[in-house]
Amino acid sequence: MTSDPTRYAMASRNRSAALTASIAAAASVLAIVGTWNYLDLNSTLRQRVTSRKVSSRKFKDRPSLAALELLTQEETLKETYPIAGRAERNIPVYDAETFDLTTEDFVERLQDEFHHCLLHGPGVFVVKHFANNLALIDEVNETFADIIAREKTENGSAGDHFAAAGTNSRIWNSFSKHALSSPTTFIPYYSNPLFRIVSESWLGPAYRLTAQVNIVHPGGQPQQPHRDYHLGFQTAEDVKLWPKEMQVASQLLTLQGALAHTDMPLESGPTRFLVGSQRFAEGFEAYRLPEFKEYFEKNWVSLALTKGDAVFFNPAIFHAAGENQMSRMSFAGP
Description:
Blueprint: H1 4-38, H2 41-51, H3 65-72, E1 86-88, E2 91-95, H4 104-119, E3 124-128, H5 134-155, E4 168-171, H6 174-181, H7 183-190, H8 193-203, E5 213-216, H9 236-239, H10 244-249, E6 256-259, E7 272-273, H11 283-286, H12 290-299, E8 310-313, E9 319-320
Parallel strand pairs: 2-3
Antiparallel strand pairs: 1-2, 3-8, 4-5, 6-8, 7-9
Helix pairs in contact: 4-8, 5-6, 5-7, 6-7
């Protein structure tokens, strides 16, 4: 027989051993769960199941507005884009005057932020002081004015797929026309190293620049929300013919941007964006649907720009030119 104190001591040791074993078991479970999550085995198993099941290569169901809402209601954290330092209306805002473009490491980190923003983040960012030679911009504006006047004389006023005749002035392929009309301003204008840095962050080193000029006249009405190249210019019926993956891949082929050639307050109608909407896989099929248009009109954001600022965006983000409520015309460069 054992005395009561002895039995108590043995019971305590047993309880301690059991507790230790329980803690060890719990730790093992947590370790297993942590490893499972770290390796993302759920996705691996889903992918394996998916790879063994033939499913439709096309989107079959009507796009879900609720799914778009989830993507566009996320907050942009300044910690995600530390070089930007701030976000206005969920759009990261960078200041080129703080950039050290002589340091390779800085440029790499900057391009990583640009790429993440365009693909996984809000889909749009602003670079303040993108062009710091404002006198050069004024000279380029004069060249553009001459081209517009000449083409109006030769071709008359005509509308385009963006606006009715008389509501805007347009130079298609301003890149080539600028070079031929004023090579002395063309070369320094496009020698800005930020064109290369921004373009390579999204497209890699084999990109090609194109440019157009659009001047929205006072009273010009806002565009309908849309996506752009390449599938954005297809009909709704044609878009449905493209496989899901190609609809997503389309946005990776083009980067869009606008460089302000004059101050652009909100009254001038700078481009409106539905932040985060580039991540919506069915977006090329959805943007024409009435419920998505209505959601855009209630949730778009826009930022004022000053001369020399630039905005860059994923072509798949839902966007539209705004309404120009100014009393006089302004230039918005390529």
